[in-house]
């Protein structure tokens, strides 16, 4: 049997989008992924749906893996002919035991490649506004493991050199031994007043930064109850200007925002929240059920090229339609000379993924406005129009187009069914006031959410409610839910813009 190949891939400092392009590429090609605890699970979206995923956390207790266990697994999977990705937090060659794994691969005659990653120390500093080198303060940097600082008779760390070091020192895995680290530095000549900083959960919306002097940083971290994962920075640069901390200044930084779409929609929504510094809390309330096996749809597909305009009103409709088209061995040529309209940029962007450029996208993203603006854009009198959309969509668009003289076929390509999830944790968070926002992107997500969560938990708590548009807000109000913001632009980006505006207006950021 042909031997496989192994990639040691740096997963970066935390955020999934900080992996390298090369790292994402090899994940897509992997047959098997061995994933560290510090590698963001969101990176697994790059892997194929049939990729074998093995979690190998190196921690004490049940479910943990030793380095020998991991070495054995890598060799075993590669010898079985698989393309293996060993996904390691940060950079695999910085405190990542890469040499151990590469040695066993070399001994087994298995080919390998190392894909560097952004090491945690560099990523942490960038996201905390700390410049590890600075022409006025530091022209040298040391990366040191803090894991062995106590309990060893013979340490590999040269504390005498560190105590006299005039540059920046970054300790990895140091929070558990912070007392010992600071004490040994002081004992070896470093001033007690040396600036020190600690960054926990770096690059995530839960990031925390603690700054103090060398002799007080440990007590300050205990007082603030900071936990790992965290890195420690010691040296003049740790006393950086807080105005350089661009990440924690974002309007939605640290806000806990519940998103209530379907699973796939929540993933896209979560990425946008993370980009704005917020903490997405995914709670799927609906699931998309294709209706492309119905006789109505199949008959419509056979005469697709007879239509003058084909209209999509959501990204879900686009995806469901083109997946069905592909399964039937067809492609965009089935459209013939028909023109295509789409509600919103997101729907239009989704069309481009399948090789279709929308001929018309309205300025205001509602069904009624699409109809009105399309009538103004083109003569629709006696034109044949096909709507491909949700089975539970309102009839507004049909009415507007029909009143404009068009012949309209309204065909359902999918519907939204309620999705039941474990809701106890969410109810607890709402009751305790730890959730800042609950968002709704459709009336069906409203129904799915309040089919599982009591309305009183939302109305009586500190949580705010954000709606994507007037139709969704109307459904919330029917249930007696007070809506704090309704997006002016009825898109996910518009919804987040409205939340940001509210946060800034009320001085929360």
Q: How does this structure look, described?
A:
- The chain is of the alpha/beta class and 509 residues long.
- It has 4 domains: 5-117, Cobalt-precorrin-4 Transmethylase, domain 1 (3-Layer(aba) Sandwich); 122-241, Tetrapyrrole methylase, C-terminal domain (Methyltransferase, Cobalt-precorrin-4 Transmethylase, Domain 2); 256-285 and 419-505, Rossmann fold (3-Layer(aba) Sandwich), CATH 3.40.50; 297-403, Rossmann fold (3-Layer(aba) Sandwich), CATH 3.40.50.10090.
- It contains 18 helices and 20 strands.
- The strands form 4 sheets. The protein has a 5-stranded parallel sheet with strand order 3-2-4-1-5, sandwiched between helices. A 5-stranded mixed sheet has the order 6-7-10-8-9, sandwiched between helices. Strands 12-11-18-19-20 form a 5-stranded parallel sheet.
- α12 (367-377) packs parallel to α13 (396-403).
- The longest helix is centred in the last third of the chain and has 14 residues, at 492-505.
- The N and C termini lie far apart (59 Å).
- 41% of the residues are buried.
Question: What's the SSE blueprint?
Answer:
Layout: E1 5-10, H1 21-28, E2 32-35, E3 52-55, H2 67-79, E4 83-88, H3 98-107, E5 111-115, H4 120-128, E6 141-145, H5 159-163, E7 168-172, H6 178-187, E8 195-200, E9 208-213, H7 217-223, E10 230-234, E11 256-259, H8 263-275, E12 279-282, E13 286-290, H9 295-302, E14 309-312, H10 315-327, E15 339-342, H11 344-353, H12 367-377, E16 384-390, H13 396-403, E17 407-418, H14 424-432, E18 437-440, H15 443-450, H16 455-459, E19 464-467, H17 470-478, E20 485-486, H18 492-505
Parallel strand pairs: 1-4, 1-5, 2-3, 2-4, 6-7, 11-12, 11-18, 14-15, 14-16, 16-17, 18-19, 19-20
Antiparallel strand pairs: 7-10, 8-9, 8-10, 13-17
Helix pairs in contact: 2-3, 10-11, 12-13, 15-17
